Automatic annotation (TrEMBL):
UniProt biased composition (Basic and acidic residues): 172-183
Taxonomy of the source species: Bacteria, Bacillati, Bacillota, Erysipelotrichia, Erysipelotrichales
GO molecular function: DNA binding
Name of the molecule in the record: Helix-turn-helix domain-containing protein
Swiss-Prot/TrEMBL keywords: Membrane, Transmembrane, Transmembrane helix
Transmembrane regions: 123-141
Chain residue ranges for the region called Disordered: 161-183
Pfam families tied to this protein: HTH_25 (PF13413)
Amino acid sequence: MENIGIILKNRREELGYSLEDVSIKTKLSTIQLNAIEEGNIQFFKDDLSYLSYFVRYYANALDLNYDELRDSLDETINEFTHTMSVTQIQKNEDINNNIQNRVKKSVVPTKVKKSKGLDLKSFGLVSFVIIISGLLVFAFFTKILPMIQDAQDPINKPEVIVRPQDENDTETETKEPEKKPEETAKKVVIKKIDAKNYEVSGFKPGENVVFDLKIANASWIEVYENTKRMANPVPKVYQPNEEVKVIVQPQKDTFVEILFGYAQGNGLTIDGETVEVDESVSGLAGKAKLNFKFVEE
């Protein structure tokens, strides 16, 4: 990576370009360009899949043949990825070992107490209680219960008087409450402004709206809400047929940006409604950005 950076830096200085000049040509920041020239691959650890694109743009801006740099760059990226994987595995092993050591230290052997057998005194007391309880139950059923039943049996039962039904009496009918017609679910309306900009209406403010991205070709995906990068979905390269959903709770003028590292063949829906992506974007074998603004009807 350092050799690539030296080649690019020497060529830039040979052409008399400053980093700011190259930044305007490539749309890359001067910080990114400086990291490339210094061979600082650690700077791109979160955007590693984009590094080859960055170097290509830089080389093209300086009229250099990118293919001459490709093999060296690929080898550098592969070595860096392998190093990161080995480091992560070692960290995981250290964490597991620490957990096992803590568990071993925290385990305290417990002593099992032997229960003492039932002694004669306890047995005699239990037997006495059982006998007394039996006598009380016998006395209740033979003496007390018949007395209670005799007291409740009246000598003369009162006559039951039935009032004849009046002919003018009418039965009252209970009316079931009228069912209100169910409200039909509103559908979002997607209006195309130009190839990259859309307006979305027909949503309920504060309720979930789901962007469902249809990945046909592997692509980097990155989503912003009101210029702030969203943590979900995670910015990374997604493979074909991998599920990518973006859930927002929009208000009026909420702005959503979706960045594709590779736009060709990929598409999306909003709450089940298909977004008609312009052919100039859907057929693009490279980066593309789609913008969605939520507006009132």
